[in-house]
Amino acid sequence: MTGWIKQLNDYDQRSFSWCNHRYQALAQRKLVRWISHSGDGYLYAGLALLLALLQTKSQLQYALWLGFALEVPLFCLLKRYYKRPRPYQAKPALKAVIIAHDPFSFPSGHTTAAFLMAALLTWTWPSWSWLFYAWAVAVGSSRVLLGVHYPGDILAGIGLGSMIAIGVIACVS
């Protein structure tokens, strides 16, 4: 690893360790798990299905379909390329409250999807942006608290989800 990447990685691991030790009791709470599960994908599929059932041909419907058609393969490819082990795999002494579905942590798929969704919903209903982004930040934070992501994974997810949203909005506008 080059010097600055190693420094970033070390900082990321120290930040995770600090959160893991400091907020372990909080991570045990059902609310944190629920917030994390709200980013599992059911919400996104449900909204897209609801819009389809209502037979609306809205820009939001197209944006959701296009956004998630791009997001899922992109974050999967990045995970397979970087193959960054999850914190609890890299250091077994660190505690994870839940076990993730796949072995790789970079970038956070939950955070990528949450920020994509927040951006698309904000595009449609800008006055509710504070709520959409508060939820997206909570989803990303919950992943660190639950021990399945480093803070850098979350930042990468924020960037990836936001970039996809910008591209999708440009395409469907």
UniProtKB/TrEMBL annotation:
Gene3D superfamilies: Phosphatidic acid phosphatase type 2/haloperoxidase. GO terms for molecular function: undecaprenyl-diphosphatase activity. The chain crosses the membrane at residues 31-54, 60-78, 113-134, 154-172. It comes from the Bacteria. GO terms for cellular component: plasma membrane. It is a multi-pass membrane protein. Its EC number is 3.6.1.27. Residues 60-169 form the Phosphatidic acid phosphatase type 2/haloperoxidase domain. Keywords: Cell membrane, Hydrolase, Membrane, Transmembrane, Transmembrane helix. SUPFAM superfamilies: Acid phosphatase/Vanadium-dependent haloperoxidase. It is found in: Cell membrane. Its main location: membrane. It catalyses: di-trans,octa-cis-undecaprenyl diphosphate + H2O = di-trans,octa-cis-undecaprenyl phosphate + phosphate + H(+). This is undecaprenyl-diphosphate phosphatase.
